[in-house]
Every structure is written in C-alpha cells, then in structure tokens.
What does this fold into?
Amino acid sequence: MNINRNANQLRVCVGDRQFGLKEEDQMALSMSFDTVIRPYFTPCYRAHMVPANLDLWDYDTVKQAWQAIHDSVKNKKMPVAGCAEGVWDDRTRDQFIADFVAWKAGGFPK
It folds into this structure.
C-alpha cells in the first residue's frame, strides 16, 4: 500500500489500484483520541465527570459514551461550570463537535 498526499487530495494505492479520498474522509483519518479528542478534556473537566463513571481520559469509556457526550456538548450541558478554564464558547464547542464527529467517522482511531 502506498499513500500519496497532495494539497487537497489523498490517493491510496494498493497494488496497481488507486483510490481517492474526499476531504472529509481525509479529515477523519487524521483524527485520533490521543492527539485530538483527549486534549479537549482538561484535568478539571475530567475530575467533574469521574464521579459519574465517565472518565474522559479513557478511550474505551469515551468511545462507548460517544452519543451521550456529543449530545451533552451540543446542548451546552458539557463541560460544566466550575473549572478555572470555564465552559466552552460557541467556537470551541462547534470545533469539538466537528472533531468528535470526524473521530467517529474515522472509526474511532486511538
């Protein structure tokens, strides 16, 4: 398998067959829990959720609770107030939702 990246195009070659990926698929490939999703969850945000059995730093927990986390963030119920970093503004919330959806679309890469 060979992967070629150009400005707005990703071509994957397997043997003599080539496959092009759409931009949204390219974005999904670059999403991972460790590098993109987990950094959104500060130590304080995590501490608020651990008592509810939701460890935001645990890959399997976040993957399993994807829909609940998605809906809570979208409805401005997460992150909760009480941390020095505050709650997310609309821009941060929208970016998280976009990244979170791309992470799921990419197959939940770790």
Q: What stands out?
A: Residues 1-30 form one domain. Helices lie at 23-30, 33-37, 43-49, 59-64, 66-74, 90-105.
